[in-house]
Design goal:
With about 350 residues, the protein is mainly beta. It is about 10% helix and about 30% strand. A hairpin with an 8-residue loop joins β2 and β3. It is globular, with a radius of gyration of 22 Å.
Length: about 350
């Protein structure tokens, strides 16, 4: 993304939304582990919004039927192993998770303790008496795991310290932390979407809802752009005008839409259909930029970099001349977790601590 993720409202605020990838990808769960420990990377691999490579012969996308010999959860209780009255295998799903034309099994183990934590495993050689463990991720609070339509492993859990859940009791918790692990290496990967989804887990759930007639606005590039602009967590604009620059039609996989509102700077949004699906795929905002003539940009960090606190943010700010803007870090709930003021000039550099 040329300009990374930012917003401008009537007070000319500049907001960077990259902290999400540090929070999601570096192992927010301290008990996370893997048989072949994945190195955190802000990489796309085959997990972008639009497909980036053809599928190799012999490989189908998404969950597949498991062989009869291994599809029963009880088959895996002795392999994991589980503990009577404490944990049990909850689910078995199969897919082409290594990028080769042989099936692997995604096994989930549920604990009967507070939070009903979930352990996640991936095995190869699944019909062998001693299958090979490729990946494990432990102690996901109220967790869930599934195989994506791009053959990645996706997980969901409760982040007890997020702005959504902090201070609430167990009954009031909401699943709000979603992660994705790459095909083959099982390294954590980021999803390029900004809005309405920042993770593939959320995007695929949204697609299912749209498929049954809900939230049909996600099928329109201009409506998605308008919802982005009016979102209270992002621009919070009113009386938004959206103009399609290119694409956005029923047979298009990409769109560019200009959005503006009275008293605001025009923004250029790039959108892509989820999985490049032109047969009812939802639209995702993947890039937000100011017109080149505005002189406004973020030059570092780059889009989908992994951040650590404090982070130094640099950019050009000619559009801020004579004013003071705000540079902020948003987390995976779009909540402001750290911000500082930036003096308007031709260029700016600020260091932003965040929690």
């Amino acid at each position: 993304m040329g300009m990374d993720h930012y917003r401008i409202n009537k007070r000319t605020r500049l907001v960077l939304c990259l902290a999400i990838f540090a929070l999601l990808l570096v192992g927010c769960n301290g008990n996370s582990s893997s048989g072949a420990t994945p190195t955190p990377k802000a990489t796309t691999s085959n997990s972008g919004v639009s497909p980036t490579a053809s599928v190799p012969p012999g490989i189908q996308l998404g969950p597949q039927a498991c062989p009869n010999a291994v599809k029963d959860p009880a088959h895996w209780d002795a392999i994991i192993p589980t503990q009577a009255n404490v944990s049990k295998v909850e689910g078995v799903a199969c897919g082409y998770l290594t990028g080769t034309p042989t099936l692997q099994a995604l096994i989930t183990v549920r604990y009967s303790v507070t939070g009903k934590t979930l352990d996640v495993y991936v095995y190869s050689n699944i019909e062998s008496p001693n299958p090979t463990q490729l990946f494990k991720l432990l102690s996901l609070y109220d967790g869930a795991a599934t195989i994506s339509l791009r053959n990645t492993v996706m997980t969901a859990e409760v982040d007890q310290n997020s702005s959504v859940n902090k201070g609430k009791g167990n009954a009031g918790f909401t699943q709000d932390l979603f992660r994705e692990f790459n095909t083959g290496s099982f390294a954590p990967v980021s999803f390029p979407g900004i809005f309405p989804d920042m993770t593939r887990y959320q995007a695929e759930l949204d697609q299912k809802q749209v498929n049954v007639g809900q939230d049909s606005w996600k099928l329109s590039a201009t409506q998605v752009a308008a919802h982005f602009a009016t979102s209270a967590a992002l621009l919070n604009w009113s009386n938004v005008n959206g103009t399609v620059v290119s694409g956005g039609g029923a047979s298009d996989a990409e769109a560019v839409v200009n959005i503006s509102a009275p008293g605001t700077q025009t923004l250029v949004l790039t959108l892509q259909r989820l999985e490049g699906n032109t047969n009812g795929g939802i639209w995702e905002v993947v890039d937000v930029a100011a017109p080149p003539a505005s002189g406004l940009s973020i030059t570092a960090p780059k889009s989908r970099d992994i951040l650590t606190s404090p982070v130094t943010i640099t950019g050009t700010g000619s559009a801020l001349a004579g004013t003071t803007g705000t540079v902020a870090i948003l987390d995976h709930t779009y909540s402001d977790i750290g911000h500082v003021s930036a003096n308007g000039s031709a260029t700016f550099s600020v260091t932003v601590p965040y929690v």
